[in-house]
Design brief:
FAD/NAD-bd_sf; 6-stranded mixed β-sheet; alpha/beta; FAD; Renalase, FAD dependent amine oxidase; single chain; flavoprotein; Amino_oxidase; globular
């Protein structure tokens, strides 16, 4: 059975793995440089109580009318398994498009990725940071920061486009000049996220579950994360998520994280004076937050080499949302089926 390596255990990578299991007889392996699944659909846990969680990346899923029919089966599957539930909590300042529907994840946003990884039956390895890709005798030899290189028949790259361009080895010369120019044209926004975790019994008294902030130089979005997901419990405390604006994120991208964290906390105090002191805080830098400019014409994937197959996918090839990742995963699988 041919061995496939998918690099990146985010939404596109995990969905590719699940679709490949359904459609092709392949042995699927996933590598991710992080310590857990999710990518930008990351759910963090309080060090004091792992049941107290916070979504530091994507906040909720929006199904727009343009994708409702095409992707209905994906939403239905996640709703049936209880991975998704309709968003019913009040979100202040949310712009609702006519006919669109919003969903939250009771177990945290990373539960979508974990669902697809379980469905895929793939072997998943974390803290596997890919550095070089070589072509060796009709197979791909993939090197990581630590440990021995491994060989695969097919490689799928679902990491952010700038990270694809940073890879070394034969891949540098395999990428055609025209493809390189297209890849270099992709751009991303940057932002910081803060997760504040509280002890059980803490009460955060606000009339909303989340709100968009328009008049602050630093903060763009605040969520009482458990309230957003309609989860109240006496066994674990609430959590608060803060997202900065993109201009703030870009301006402070290379700053010391502790300094950035303090600026965000000071601004949060201005917006929510008297907010209780958290038991712990997690600061997350999203260097590649959302795609602001995708590959021209949004093809969903880019085939760098046909035999053996080397294919790229992810929201950089479509658009930055759940439906964009579905489109990309479908395109990657179709490309592999054609190449095989």
């Amino acid at each position: 059975m041919a061995r496939v390596l998918i690099v990146g255990a985010g939404l596109t990578g995990s969905l590719c793995a699940a679709l490949l299991r359904r459609e092709l007889p392949l042995h699927v392996v996933l590598w991710d440089k992080a310590r857990g699944a999710g990518g930008r659909m990351a759910t963090s846990r309080s060090p004091e109580n792992p049941r107290c969680t916070a979504d530091l990346g994507a906040q909720y899923i929006t199904l727009r009318t343009a994708h409702a029919q095409k992707h209905e089966s994906f939403y239905k599957e996640l709703l049936t398994h209880g991975v998704l539930k309709p968003l019913t909590a009040p979100v202040k300042g949310m712009v609702i498009e006519e006919g669109s529907r919003n969903f939250v994840t009771p177990q945290g946003i990373s539960s979508i990725v974990k669902h697809y990884l379980t469905e895929s039956g793939a072997e998943v390895f974390y803290e596997h940071h890919v550095t070089h890709i070589y072509l060796r005798g009709g197979k791909w030899e993939v090197c990581k920061k630590t440990g021995s290189p491994e060989q695969f028949d097919i490689v799928v790259l679902t990491i952010p486009v700038p990270q694809i361009l940073q890879l070394q080895g034969d891949i540098v010369n395999i990428i055609k000049e025209s493809q390189k120019q297209q890849l270099e044209s992709v751009s991303y926004s940057s932002r910081y996220a803060l997760g504040l975790f509280y002890e059980a019994g803490t009460w955060i008294d606000v009339p909303w579950a989340a709100q968009y902030i328009t008049n602050n130089p630093c903060i763009r979005f605040i969520s009482i994360d458990n309230k957003k997901r309609n989860i109240e419990s006496s066994e674990f405390g609430p959590s608060v998520v803060v997202h900065t604006s993109v201009p703030f994120g870009i301006a402070h991208l290379e700053w010391d994280m502790e300094k950035v964290q303090q600026i965000i906390l000071d601004q949060l105090e201005n917006i929510m004076p008297g907010l209780p002191k958290p038991a712990s805080i997690k600061c997350q830098k999203w260097r590649y937050s959302q795609v602001t400019k995708a590959i021209p014409h949004c093809p969903g994937q880019m085939t760098l080499h046909i035999k053996p197959s080397l294919v790229c996918g992810g929201d950089g090839f479509t658009h930055s949302n759940f439906d964009g990742c579905i489109d990309s995963a479908i395109s990657v699988v179709e490309a592999l089926k054609t190449n095989l």
